[in-house]
Design brief:
Layout lengths: L16 H5 L9 H4 E15 L2 E14 L16 E7 L5 E7 L2 H5 L3 H4 L4 E12 L3 E8 L5 E9 L15 E7 L8 E8 L6 H15 L12 E8 L37 H8 L6 E6 L6 E4 L3 E5 L5 H14 L54 H20 L4 H20 L10 E4 L2 E7 L16 H15 L1
Helix pairs in contact: 5-7, 8-9
Length: 481
């Protein structure tokens, strides 16, 4: 248990959120009875090493109107490494919950954390402002699928300790398109980083270009009417974002930077508070952070945000791919690219992500309803030939990175590998069919993906596989029904 600041009273609990919410009916009261219609933000610090973690309160912050669903308040998707839950003190019912992942959750799997080096990451969870005191709970998923509590505390929304100071507008909100009230639409908010005042028109053009690319891809295309998309231009003093390997440093408002976890292409930010304060100016369910640079890169963490660099030739692909992570909790299906994670998907453990499996029980494959009769499980494919080509490409890519090659040289390599691997994967016997193809989730063996190719596997296709599409559809419905 964690000792909280005086405004919050610690509530003792004896079992996990997951155990207590299993089979519970939805809240008896309607949204307006339970909540005021405003938004509260729970800011906290997540600290630890690979074998120990702690959560401590930063503050409770009042934002604007609640942008989310008024009906789908309790998350039943089973997605996420963590669950954030809000519990009514009188009835003990969960009245709001969301699964999520975090930078901390990724960091604890890398060598630095395993060596006992402590780090702290600032995180936030948003929820409808309750009318009465509630209990906030954070739990995390163990390898056996059970959830363990890592935080519990009571919040009094009427307390003088809730930060109700006015929100300061950091920039201009730009309407890309709106299809209706935020409460029954998916609200995307794109934030600018590394764009100067003179780059305002460029930012809007970049945002519109990438949004249009996204809505050409299913299931976004057929669900366009279920979305609102806005953009927020925030002035940076200088163009571009930080690139440590390239020797470029730029203290931008949102702090986007390459080289997260020492991965050259991975773009993250550790300025969570600045991001949240900026984003609070507009209604949003999902944040997309756009970096003003031509260098290839991006990132996406489930129910946190996604990042993308605007001017790479692969920007449209990255924009959509990273949304798969941040919006629907889809896993990376590739395994030949280098990553800093260690045991991200431990052997013998079934991943929670909807699009990869350890195939521990082939008869109960999580997407078995999409598998045609006669398709073998596991499903054979030419992995040896693909791996030979892909690992050779990764070796060349590393050489270019180490030599600080130009963006143009990297782009040429992207094009070359696509020309080789696309026909290779497309000519497989079971191409276009759903099965269980070995290789995925950063592991060549022991993890399986649904189809030979998908936006979550390579830069080749312009579509998600059927399993990923279904995962995206489910989350869209969660915000709109």
């Amino acid at each position: 248990m964690i000792k909280l600041l005086p405004l919050l009273a610690l509530v003792s609990v004896s079992c996990t959120v997951a155990e207590r919410t299993a089979g519970e009916p939805p809240p008896l009261a309607d949204f307006d009875t339970l909540f005021t219609g405003k938004t509260l933000r729970f800011d906290y610090n997540h600290t630890g090493i690979a074998t120990e973690e702690h959560v401590s309160l930063d503050e409770i912050r009042l934002e604007g109107d609640w942008p989310g669903s008024r009906t789908a308040l309790v998350d039943d998707t089973g997605l996420g490494k963590y669950i954030f839950a809000v519990r009514d003190l009188e009835t003990k019912r969960v009245i709001y919950s969301r699964g999520f992942c975090s930078i901390y959750g990724e960091w604890e799997t890398i060598g630095e954390a395993k060596k006992g080096i402590w780090r702290t990451f600032h995180e936030s969870q948003r929820f409808p402002e309750p009318r009465k005191k509630v209990q906030l709970e954070l739990t995390r998923r163990s390898n056996d699928g059970a959830f363990k509590e890592i935080y519990s505390g009571v919040v009094d929304p009427s307390s003088r300790f809730v930060n109700r100071s006015p929100l300061n507008a950091p920039g201009e909100v730009i309407k890309i398109f709106e299809n209706g009230p935020a409460k029954n639409k998916v609200d995307f908010l794109i934030l600018a980083d590394g764009y100067t005042a003179e780059d305002r028109k460029k930012f809007e053009a970049d945002a519109r270009r990438l949004v249009e690319a996204m809505f050409k891809v299913e299931p976004f295309a057929s669900n366009r009417g279920n979305f609102n998309v806005r953009a927020l231009h925030i002035n940076s003093a200088r163009e571009g974002i930080t690139n440590p390997r390239g020797g470029k440093w730029n203290d931008t408002p949102l702090g986007l930077s390459f080289n997260a976890f020492d991965s050259d292409r991975y773009v993250l930010s550790y300025k969570n508070h600045a991001i949240r304060e900026s984003a609070a100016l507009a209604p949003y369910d999902m944040l997309l952070l756009l970096g003003n640079t031509a260098k290839y890169g991006g990132g996406g963490i489930f129910n946190l945000w996604s990042t993308c660099t605007a001017d790479s030739s692969q920007a449209a692909y990255v924009f959509v791919h990273e949304l798969g992570h941040s919006f629907a909790g889809l896993a990376d299906e590739y395994y030949t690219s280098s990553v800093s994670y260690e045991d991200f998907n431990p052997p013998g453990v079934e991943p929670w992500e909807p699009n990869i499996t350890a195939l521990l029980d082939p008869k109960n494959l999580k997407w078995k309803d999409l598998v045609e009769a006669g398709t073998p499980l596991p499903t054979p494919w030419g992995q040896e030939g693909y791996d030979k080509a892909s690992y050779a490409y990764q070796k060349k890519r590393k050489q270019l990175i180490d030599s600080k090659a130009s963006t143009e040289e990297m782009e040429k390599l992207f094009s070359k590998v696509k020309k080789k691997t696309s026909p290779m994967l497309g000519s497989e016997k079971y191409a276009g069919k759903v099965g269980a193809f070995e290789g995925g989730g950063y592991r060549a063996k022991g993890i399986y993906r649904p189809e030979t190719d998908c936006i979550m596997f390579t830069r080749n296709p312009k579509r998600f596989c059927r399993v990923c599409s279904r995962g995206l559809e489910r989350v869209i419905r969660m915000y709109t029904e």
